[in-house]
Design a protein that fits this description.
This protein is of the alpha/beta class. The longest helix is centred in the middle third of the chain and has 14 residues.
Length: about 160
Amino acid sequence: MKILDASTIIAISKIKCPELIEKIGLLGHVLAIPSYIVKYELLDKNTSKITEMYVQSGKIQILKNNPVKEILEFKKDFPRLGMGECYSMLAYQKLRGTGERVYCILDDYKARKNATKLGIKFTGLIGLLLMMKQKDIMSGYEFDKVVKLLKDSNFRFPADVVM
């Protein structure tokens, strides 16, 4: 299961490439997103429309939120993280305990740094794009086009990514 953070869906929405959700699904993982993120972070009309479409088609599952008390405790330990990242990372920790293969999709530097400290397996949108290219889910031309669209948007590229 890949637990999405809001940034992935927002970026896909901004560059107007909703088909990437289906392609990410072709990597062989269920896509999931905490309900908090859907309710409070995906507020842009286009982004919420894309999310709703893929939830209804079964391409994205909505994860039940952890109790607020747990989230606030987690947030106390990681005050610089956004609530969405807290919900995603806590969902990871809970699902990891079930034996299911789980990954977080995190693009925020602080979230990735804390995920590493917590032993959370993660990648970002660029990592997903590279996986899709390597597995021939996406052509080299398509990959280059999406990366250019992301660069032209306000998507945060990790400092160590050179393209």
